[in-house]
Structure formats: C-alpha cells, structure tokens
Specification:
Number of domains of chain B: 1
Helix content of chain B: 40-55%
Largest sheet of chain B: none
Oligomer: heterodimer
CATH topology of chain B: Non-ribosomal Peptide Synthetase Peptidyl Carrier Protein, Chain A
Order of helices and strands of chain B: HHH
Number of strands of chain A: 14
Distance between the termini of chain B: 10 Å
Structural class of chain A: alpha+beta
Largest sheet of chain A: 6 strands, mixed
CATH superfamily of the largest domain in chain A: Thiolase/Chalcone synthase
C-alpha cells in the first residue's frame, strides 16, 4: 500500500516585525497585557504591496530545497495546495500562481480554506491524493496574512495575529517508514459560523440590498467561546487520531497545536495529561499565523532540533467554520529550511534535544 | 469554608496565582483578580476534573465561589 511521507519542510515570515511595544504606541495596550494573555511578544507583517502568495512561494521554495537536500535529488511535484483564508484575490485561487512562481506551471493547484485548521485539511487532501495514486508528490503550503483583514483599532485581534507561511513536501512511500502520515481526524460544525468570521466581502453580502457596513470587512472572533471550544475540540480530535493510530497519549513526544495562544496550548496539554515540556510553541515570536502556524512551528522546531528524528509528533488545530483536526507521525530524518532572514528559532520546551 | 470551596481556593492559588489570603467564598472572583480568560481556564479544569459538561458562559469571573459550587452541583458534580 502506498503512503504519503513527509519529505521536506520549510517556512517563511516577512521581514517587518511588529513588537508589542509598537502596538502599545498606537493602541490602548501594553507588552505586559498582551504577553500575559497570549504569550505573544512580536509578530511579522506583510510589506505593503506584498500578497499572501509571496509568502507561500518563499515557504514552498524552502520546502522544496529541504526535500532536495534531504533526498539528494529534486522532488517530484504534481499538486500544489495552498491553505489560506487571505488569498491574493477572491478569484482565482492563489495556488496556481504560487506553483508557477515555483517553476511548477502545469501541475494541479488549488486553495483550501478551513481557516486555522486549513493546513491540516490540505495535508489530509495531499495524503489522500498520494494514497489513492492520483499524485506522486504534493507541496502543501499553509499561508496567511491576517494583518490585511484586521480592524486597525482592535487591540485584541491585532495583538494576536501575524503573517507567515510554512510548507511541507509529501512523497510516495511506505506506511511503516518514518514520516508516513496515514490517519486523520477532521471535523466541522457550521453552527459556529459566527465565532470566527469576516462577515463582508462574500456572495451573501454582495447579493444583499442592504447598505454595506464598513466594519464588515474586518475579522472578528468571540474569544471566550473560541478558547473553550478550541481546547476541547483539539483534545477530542487528538485522542481520536491517537486511538486510531494505536499511539498512547503518554507516548507523544511533541504536540504541535495550532499556535493560537500560549494559554490555549497549555490548556490543551492539561486536557491530554501531557507535560508542558512536550508542547512546541513559537507563538512568542510569530503570533497566530492562522493556516501557517503548524508548519511554521514544525519548521522552527525541526531547525533547532526541538523535534528530531524518531519523535512521535501530534499535530492538531481548531479554526473558523468551526473546523478542527489532528494527525500524528513519526518524525523523519529531514533537513528543515527555515527563514534565513531572522535569528535562529527559539522554541519553548524545557527538554534538551538529544 | 466547605470542601469544594477550599479546593477551589487551592486551585486558584496553585494554577492561577490568586493569593489565598484574598480569597473569599462570597465575593465575586473579579475581586481577587480573576478575569474572563481565567474563568474559561477554570471551566475547562472543572469540566475535566469533575467529569461534567460546562458551556463557555457557565462560569464567569463575576460569580462567587459559592455560586460556582451551586453551578457544578446543578451539572451533576458530587461536591460538598
């Protein structure tokens, strides 16, 4: 049986850094207020005129370099998936442009939108394509630029979100080899449509005779309910996928949850009875990068060896929709290529790499 | 204080850093520094430890420890 195997990983953040202090100069907030509630110290934002496609290209390029460096040969790619909620344009999808920029004109390419769960949904799609024999290699990119949809006066969302991209390359392989990804738990509940949303800009608003509310273009989130649902859904999804994979929760070496908020990640670990030092987080440096957050955290952790070959790694996310998901894999021997424009990643775990 | 309320004081002290000397069973938790975020974290903790189901708005920082005790009992928790 053919399996999809993680064979390359890369990440990119744009060069412009916005610190908590920078936000405190223009909003009623402070470094202490933001960091104590979210764990975030800074985030990166797009350069004016840049699009999310530019971030996706850079992350995708790094994942391809990673795969080539790991295998010693250029990877085969016949499908490019871009998970994003902030595409370059409402139409067309961003993925075909990204594929062409990467020299992959002619391959299949499409976007996936499951908000902050988008990367896991796209990963599952790529894994399924390979397992079904429809693809030989899939480039799965998570990229978002939430800075473009935030209300500039909203101190809560501006403190939380940052821009970035991360990507993995999937190749054909065997189900029992390190890096093989086989089992997912994915779910959704449309009853939560209003919890995490941009109300305007879509067909429902455009078909309405009502005058457009200018604030409808901005992202909103009901923080308290999202916090609770995120923790419970990620915990439930994690337990489900681990049970299906025959992995005990206590055997998870690293959990890479959607980097929404440090306190959500710690509450998740608490729900799973996992020690805090197994939680991988780079949120202090990049903020919540939506669909990019899991591959960005993975890439950083792989670069600094917080995650290394042989680790059992659990991935889980919760996002708008609402949507949620989880998967698990044994980390392969892969050379990660993280952003060269910023300092080496520092990841919040207590255990020394071995 | 009752047993559950004593446990609650310990939880708030150990997990959320509330000084025990400020704790009072009949005062809103906001008065000893609990905010809406901690209230959600407390709800998640109680849900797991007591085996009950709580909605996001069930526990708020404006409630007193005695009110929280009454709430978790109404959800089926066997606490004293």
């Amino acid at each position: 049986m053919t399996a999809a195997v993680l064979a390359g990983i890369g990440a990119y953040t744009p060069p412009t850094v916005v610190t908590n202090g920078d936000l405190a100069e223009v909003l009623d907030t402070s470094d202490e207020w933001i960091s104590s509630r979210t764990g975030i110290r800074q985030r990166y934002v797009l350069t004016p005129g840049q699009g999310v496609g530019d971030l996706a290209v850079e992350a995708g390029r790094r994942a391809l370099e990673s795969a080539e460096e790991t295998a010693g040969a250029a990877p085969v790619v016949d499908l490019v998936l871009v998970a994003t909620t902030t595409p370059d344009r409402p139409c067309p999808a961003t993925a075909p442009w990204v594929a062409s920029e990467l020299g992959l004109t002619g391959v299949a390419a499409m976007d996936v939108n499951a908000v902050c769960t988008g990367f896991l949904y796209a990963l599952a799609t790529g894994v399924g394509q390979i397992a079904a024999g429809l693809s030989r290699g899939v480039l799965v990119i998570g990229a978002d630029a939430f800075s473009t949809i935030l209300d500039p006066r909203d101190r809560t969302t501006r403190a939380v979100f940052g821009d970035g991209a991360g990507a993995v390359l999937l190749r054909r392989g065997e189900p029992d080899e390190p890096g093989a990804i086989g089992t997912f738990d994915l779910g959704s509940d449309g009853g939560g449509v209003d919890l995490i949303t941009v109300r305007g800009g879509g067909s429902r608003q455009r078909s309405s005779p009502e005058p457009v509310d200018p604030s409808s273009r901005y992202f909103t989130m009901q923080g308290r309910e999202v916090f609770m649902q995120a923790v419970l859904r990620m915990a439930e999804s994690s337990r489900a996928v681990l049970a299906r994979s025959g992995i005990q929760v206590s055997d998870v070496d690293r959990v890479v949850g959607h980097q929404a908020n440090t306190r959500i990640l710690m509450a998740l670990a608490d729900q799973l009875d996992l020690p805090a030092d197994r939680v991988v987080s780079n949120i202090h440096r990049v903020g919540n990068t939506a669909a990019a957050s899991i591959p960005l955290a993975l890439a950083d952790a792989a670069v600094d060896q917080t995650i290394h070959k042989g680790h059992t790694v659990l991935l889980t996310a919760f996002g708008g929709g609402t949507t949620w998901g989880a998967t698990a894999l044994e980390w392969p021997d892969v050379v990660a290529v993280a952003d060269a424009t910023r300092p080496q990643a520092t990841v919040d775990t207590a255990e020394e790499p071995s | 204080m009752t047993t559950f309320v004593q446990d609650l004081a310990t939880i708030l002290s150990d997990r959320f850093g509330v000084p025990t000397e400020e704790f009072a069973e009949d005062r809103p938790m906001t008065e000893f520094g609990i905010d809406s975020l901690v209230a959600v974290e407390l709800a998640l903790f109680l849900q797991k430890s007591l085996g009950i189901e709580l909605a996001p708005g069930d526990i708020s920082a404006e409630q007193t420890p005695l009110e929280i005790k009454a709430l978790v009992r109404s959800k089926g928790a066997d606490v004293q």
